[in-house]
Amino acid sequence: MLTARKLTKVYQSGGRPLTVLKEVSLEVEPGGFLAVIGPSGCGKTTLLGLLAGLDVPTSGSVEIDGRDLGVLTEDARARLRGEKVGFVFQTFQLIATLTAQENVQVPLELQGHGGTGARGHGEESPADRARELLERVGLRGREHHYPAQLSGGEQQRVAIARAFANRPRILFADEPTGNLDHANGGMVISLLEELNRESGTTLVLVTHDPALACRARRTIRLLDGAVVDDTGRAA
Amino acid sequence: MIRPAVIARLAWRESRASRRRLILFASAISVGVAALVAIASFTKNLETSVRRQARELLGGDLVLGSQRPFPAPVASLIDSLERSGHAVARQMRTQSMAYVRGTEGIRLVELRAVNARFPLYGRVLTAPAGQWARLASERVAIVDTALLVALGANIGDTLEIGGRGFPIAAVAVEIPGRVSGMEGFGAQVFIPLRDFGGTGLVTFGSRVQHTAFVQLPDERTSRRVVYGHRGMLERERVHSETAADFQSEVTDALRNLSSFLQFVGLIALLLGGIGVASGVAAFVAGKLDTIAVLRCLGATRPFVFATYLAQAGALGLVGSGAGVLLGVGVQAALPRVLKGVLPLDVRVAIEPAALLEGLGIGLAVALLFALRPLLEVRLVSPLQALRRAYEAEDTGPRRGDPWRVAAFGALAIGVFLIAMGRAQEPRVGVGFAVAIALSVGTLTLAARLAVWLARRLSRPGGVSARWPYVLRQGLANLHRPRNQTRTVITALGFGVTVLATLYLVQANLLKQVSLATLNAGGRANVVFIDVQPDQAAGAEALIREAGLPVIQTVPIVPMRIATVRGVSADSIGHIPLPQRPAPWTMRREFRSTYRDSGTASERLVQGAWWSRRTLPSGPPWPVALEREVADELTVGLGDSITWNVQGVMVPTRVAAIREVDWARFEPNFFAVFASAALEHAPHSMVLLTRADDSGTRARLQRAVSQRYSNVTSYDVALLQRMVERIFSRVALAIRFMAALSLATGALVLLGAVAAGRLQRIREGALLKTLGATRRQLTRILLAEYLALGLLAGLVGTGLSVAGGWAMCHYVFELEYAVPLAPLAAVVAATSVLVGLVGMLASREVFRRTAVEVLRDV
Predict the structure, then answer these.
(1) B779 is a domain residue
(2) Same domain, B363 and B473
(3) Is this prediction's pTM over 0.80?
(4) The dihedral formed by the CA atoms of B501, B502, B507 and B509, expressed in degrees to the nearest 10
(5) Do B460 and A82 touch (CB under 8 A)?
(6) What interface predicted TM-score (ipTM) does this complex get?
(7) Shortest CA gap B275–chain A (Å)
(8) I need a surface site. Which of A92, B380, B487, B631 has the fewest CB within 10 A?
């Protein structure tokens, strides 16, 4: 499902090259659940950005669902993300001017599905899909609230609903519980796990919380940009 | 007590990352400051030039003018001045027809017959050079270049004026005191004064202006002459003006125009101020973390406030400084732009007072407007450094905060004081302040309305629910948190309002005199005036021979008012004010007519026309007055007026009041007499006809002029050209101010884009992460900016429709129509302009990669 080979990323910092990721290779099978852990500054987020095609590696390659990201243009990568990738961020990253439901609809609408109209072929409309997902994450009745009117936990649940809106093949989560209290964090992780199980979506989770990483079927530990530990096998 | 140096140092360091953005906010006030500096400086330059060239512009140290030959006492005064060694230049000026034998055309000209001493000051430059002196000894003409072109004539051809031929000696390139384009109906033609009588142009009823330009050693002498003979000059209805009178008149007019333009500049500046305020608000919102950290490190509230106030002050200084420089540049360019419009050479000089004033006003506006958003920094708690969400809700504006109220009060008082400082007198200053408050208030209100509309549209389940996603997202962006939509709409809307109002007034004015309107419905489009009674039959025959109708034959009788309600014109000064007739009505020569019914261009508002049954058999005769002149005379139905008709007293009683449509190309009158009253009085005639083709009109005018050289004729096209010309001169200044206001709007827009920069980049990156392509991002941004421009355009044109109506209704008294297509074009152009500026300013959104969303920049 996801294959990375010898990913290296070098940034120029103050005129000097700074290697933040050194030849990281990994593979995640469809429906798998991988956690990437490590202290802050170890290159977790850089790795996530490269795996998701948000950034390009200095060397090495990434394949998602058999497609090499290296040969795709920025727009083609964006389209691939729109079709196959979902995201959950530490800071939620909801669009402040859109309601909860509209936020969930965004990935679908970027794909060209109409607003409230039907999608054709008997498929449900983005609005229906968004309502269904919001109900699934326990936000029924909050569809028309703006992000500012929701609590942190609720915002993250909207973000999860958004992440699953386009039925992604793979979902990247970057410290999804980092800004949440214990109870809300637990609820968010359970949701991710449930959705991972139900829809067979591959899950890649970045965290520095060992307790959270324990729930993954496989864990990779990064230190100074290199893999120092890999539980190595699917659970 | 914190030392200012510490504050300054921190303010400087703290601004490091945002200086470019701060300068962009500051530039919003630059244009307004530039306008104020340029106008104030140039006005001062003009005043200096007028002072230096007043005698040249007026034509002499003392000028006496009369509508008839100078009466004996005045003539002998002039002669005695001349005998005692003062040079006197004389001029007779009238309108006449001119043509060249062997060519086809004919033109109305402004004929100036001058003696050898003309001009007393300055020189007339001719081409070929040195021909002016020939007027002293030969029967030649010196003409405007435009006349040669219009008639297809050359130097050396003989110009036919009145009954005589004048060989054209040269064209006049430069004439002292002459404002090009403002010369009235026709091109100027100079001929020797001694040959004027031979033209036969002076007939009954013709208008000839007699002028004597006198050279005197100084202003004191000029005044002594005027004051010594004031009573006599007034009695003889001779107008007098000294160089100093003229200078103060021109200076007053300049100052009025200047303060009007500065008023527009001031509004532009204040809109820039609003831009500064909203930029500072966005800036402060982005600084909350820094401020919290500063507070954690022990900075007091006053210290933090002073630091950011210092930044705002520096921003104001930079913005005003740039404005001052720009203003000086504009000032230097103005003489070139206005070349040919100004009658004098303007020496451009730096006016330090105007520069300092501009700098001070700019700084004051920046600080006054920045004050309120800056107050927010006091409310930042150090706890926010630990956890932003913790206190975030408490930092919003608090109603009733005495500091906020004080900041608002300072702003209001400051603007009021600035307005007072710009005006010539306190009353005008108060008017300005009120007008500014109204303009800015209306604009702000309209902008709020537009934003409300956008929000209604994009509300869940609103109309836009069925629109494509990119359009909805773009629209939603207009009311994102900390949006600057209202500011941009207000600032841009003002520029559009000024521009579109100007356009609407111009369009409505020109429509009145457009060929289409004037030609409509078989109305007359050629007028012959000064036709003597014994020429009328012949002239009518010429019109009919050309196959054209004689639409109207109107008699004209010149007269003055002798008494009103029994009080003589000389003693109306004794009538108490509300009942006292306006002095001009007593001085004026009325050109009245007689008939016994109304015409299409007037309607009765009081009283009734007379009939054979109601007409008295002798005086007082009934007279029908125009409404406004009746008001000026303070008379109503039944009041008595006695008219002096060439020495014969004609008593009348007001029988009717008429409303007259003066905009028609037809003779209209202040006073219409019963036929029986004036039938035997000396009069001239006006004949009206109509020819669709301009060639036919020209041939007819020429035929009549060849037979009756004293008859002057007007072609409707001429009137139209004149109105267009005058309007374009006036519009130049206003268009300039409109362009400046639009520039302010564009800068406020740029500032607004810069203020929301981080948020946009983050949002763009997020959308990319969620799968948006560049194309979709482009469309979202384009939708946002086009909608913003659309709203600004709608607000601007909407207000201009109201403004144009007010101008047309109250100032020009015109029928008002709104041409929709051009206004739609203005809206579309605004939208495209904003779209372009917005997209150009948003390039960074496309440049940044999606990964930044992870880093939460």
Answers:
(1) yes
(2) no
(3) no
(4) 110
(5) no
(6) 0.76
(7) 22
(8) B631
